[in-house]
Design goal:
The chain is an alpha+beta fold and about 300 residues long. Helix content is about 40%, strand content about 25%.
Amino acid sequence: MKTTLDNYKNIDKRTHCIFNEDNTFKVFHLNNLSTINELIKHKLDSNFIQLYFCNNGKCKVAFNVEHCAVNLETNSSCMVYFKDEIMNVLFNLPPKSELLAIHISIEYFHSLFSIEGNSLYNFNSFNTGKPIIEPKDITPTIQLILNQLMTKQINETLRPVYIKGKVYELLSYYFSTSTENDNENCPYIANEETIGKIKHAKEIVIQEMNNPPSLSELAKKVGLNIKKLKTDFKEFYGAPVFTFLLNYKMELAKKLILEKQLNVNEIAVYLGYSASSHFIAAFKRKFGITPKQFGKS
């Protein structure tokens, strides 16, 4: 069945927008933890430089109409610019896909890359109103920054400052023209092989979340010693292994509650809790309200 604009639900700013500052930029974290495609739309009301980073799976981002779109896969990104000031951005997110979007006002973008009248970036395409669609692979350093941006471990009061600083760091690497960055290595993690093992560890704990392996078992499965697994996993995903898993479960719980297909007891079983009371207590510690209260709100 062909989708139309009516099939796309408006972006839930409470859930997806992790930073929004007038006249600078917005950051959206879209993570489909459900078993069906999510169709989300966001209306732009002014000029933005749009950056999209696919952290997992395959995502499609369209502009006003579905056939005008970019397709992103894991570890790929794209910069997009249209002269249109008003447009709908349409996100098509398959199950287990994850996307980070940064929308920067065109005026603010100019200010970031101009110093005393000298431009550090070629603005010709922006100035003439030409559309821009520039795909780019995600480097290990940018991947690390993306994971840090998506971490839930920062104190809520300090989180806006943290996110803003990380976005600046991300932009400095993304737009760097230094040849040194063409073959850069992540400053914290030794090489691509280690990154692959850390990602494999993440996949294992998610797949086996009902009965996850111990750290020693996980280290053996991915071929790392425990110390390196603990250190590099935290650097890469912004949280220790089992804190990451708890955050994942709680975010998945919110999705399941909103879908209204399972009751609280069934969700507790689905997430691997031996008793619904344990799940309710964990949810309240994380979000400050019970699952039932969250469903009603």
